[in-house]
């Protein structure tokens, strides 16, 4: 008799667990689709911004070295994602003066000294982006290691340079005059939105 009661209790527990798992899966699907919609809208804006940036003069700066931003996961259930980021990082870490980590998992693998906590809102991210842009203005080349989301089964892991002026159109190689705020504002805006795009792709892959 006790055995039957025990079985019924377990069945109720399993039934409740199944409902919870289904609800969590539904929430994850909604969050996933919402992120995809944000990325699609963002890509159109970023493309127009990139076209504008590529037609503006280069702002000359003395090269001071290279900085890397590593986008990884804060969670423990993204083993392959973090390992793929880690592999790319291990092959290129010697090139960089400083490395910033967004997400602690790869940072823990590398035992890095510089650490930035994961931005949880656009306001937090803007503070981080402004901080990195200040380094860029000093003459540092800022690269970002992230996962570029293609589809559920395919992601590309690589390092990309923010505000890569090698892609600028030839006629844009003009002398920048101090005080031309439009060019400087476009550069900063493009820098921030490019970094935000990488962050969104990494978040979606995670």
Strand and helix map with partners:
Blueprint: H1 2-53, E1 65-71, H2 79-92, E2 98-102, H3 104-110, H4 122-137, E3 140-151, E4 154-161, H5 181-205
Parallel strand pairs: 1-2, 1-3
Antiparallel strand pairs: 3-4
Textual characterization of the structure:
- It is a single chain.
- By secondary structure, this protein is an alpha/beta fold.
- It has five helices and four strands; from the N terminus they run αβαβααββα.
- Strand 1 (65-71), helix 2 (79-92) and strand 2 form a beta-alpha-beta unit.
- Helix 2 packs across helix 3 and helix 4 crosses helix 5 (181-205).
- The longest helix has 52 residues, at 2-53.
- It is elongated.
- The protein starts with a helix and ends with a helix.
Give a brief outline of the structure.
The protein has 206 residues and is of the alpha/beta class. The chain contains five helices and four strands.
- Taken from the alpha-carbon principal axes, the silhouette is elongated
**Radius of gyration over all CA atoms, rounded:** 22 Å
User: How far is the N terminus from the C terminus?
Assistant: 48 Å
Oligomer: single chain
> What is the count of β-strands?
4
Widest sheet: strand ordering: 2-1-3-4
Major beta-sheet overview: 4 strands, mixed
């Amino acid at each position: 008799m006790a055995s039957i009661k025990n079985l019924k209790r377990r069945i109720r527990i399993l039934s409740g667990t199944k409902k919870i798992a289904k609800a969590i899966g539904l929430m994850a699907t909604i969050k996933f689709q919402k992120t995809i919609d944000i990325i699609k809208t963002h890509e159109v804006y970023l493309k127009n911004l990139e076209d504008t940036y590529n037609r503006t003069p280069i702002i000359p700066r003395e090269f001071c070295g290279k900085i890397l931003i590593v986008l990884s996961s804060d969670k423990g259930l993204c083993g392959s994602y973090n390992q793929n980021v880690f592999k790319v990082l291990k092959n290129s870490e010697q090139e960089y003066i400083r490395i910033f980590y967004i997400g602690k998992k790869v940072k823990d693998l590398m035992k890095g000294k510089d650490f930035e906590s994961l931005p949880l809102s656009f306001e937090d991210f803007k503070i981080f982006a402004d901080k990195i842009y200040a380094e860029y203005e000093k003459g540092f080349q800022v690269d970002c290691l992230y996962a570029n989301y293609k589809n559920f089964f395919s992601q590309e892991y690589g390092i990309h340079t923010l505000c890569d002026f090698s892609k600028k159109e030839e006629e844009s190689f003009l002398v920048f005059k101090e005080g031309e705020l439009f060019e400087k504002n476009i550069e900063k805006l493009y820098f921030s939105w490019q970094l935000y795009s990488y962050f969104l792709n990494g978040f979606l892959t995670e």
